[in-house]
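Re: that chain you flagged

S.,

Sorry for the slow reply, it's been a week of failed gels. I finally had a moment to sit down with the sequence you sent. For the record, here it is as I used it:
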Amino acid sequence: MGTRERYAPGTFCWADLGVADRDASKAFYSQLFGWEHSDQTGPRGNVYTTFEKDGHAVAALREGPPVWFSYVAVESVDDSVARATGAGASVAAEARDIPPAGRIAVVTDPQGAHVGLWQAGVFLGAGLVNEPGSIVWQQLSAPDLGAAQEWYAGQFGWTWADLPGVPGWLEARNGENWLMGGASEGPEAGWQLVFTVEDCARACERVEELGGRTLEPPADTAIGVFATVADQQGSAFGVFTGETDP
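Prediction finished late last night. Pasting the structure tokens below so you have them in one place:
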């Protein structure tokens, strides 16, 4: 089982979704992935909904635009923001404390992709990954793929290599050689979150039954089957069936 009790700095560790209709999103994702959910009220009165699978936190809902955000574990949010802006990034969300969970910020890389930064307090991030109904991959689209490789390597110490059997895709690994995600060239910069599922084709059918859409139908690759879907509020994400890391 892909349980996690630590995340090395430079590793994707969490994801949350901005929503307009929280109840609709709770119903959609609970039925799609078998998640349970609970609400917490933050210090500013905002509600944060945490999804769980098999007793482990896997993702969350928050107030905001209907986009999935992914967060990288860092030792110091403030140092990471300074390093990112010094290398051409801009600040999308200022650093702030979420006591006692941790400290957070969001930056926008030089090509326009948003990436969150998470300095853990009592909250580590996802307690379960790489299992059906949990996060398995983060895929970057970048107009200038070489520049993106260089920027993220400089920020988080990532190493890049061709993804075996998938032409045009790169894989990204952290300093401890964990496979976290990858990148490919695309017209618009952005990160796409991918969840693993037992049956990619059936997951697409289920998305449509729940009011969502299939944006890119299941496609076979050397490592498994990928598809891109959107929930009933238009938020896009990927689903994958295939071999995963432990």
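What I noticed first: The chain is about 20% helix and 45% strand.

Talk soon,
D.
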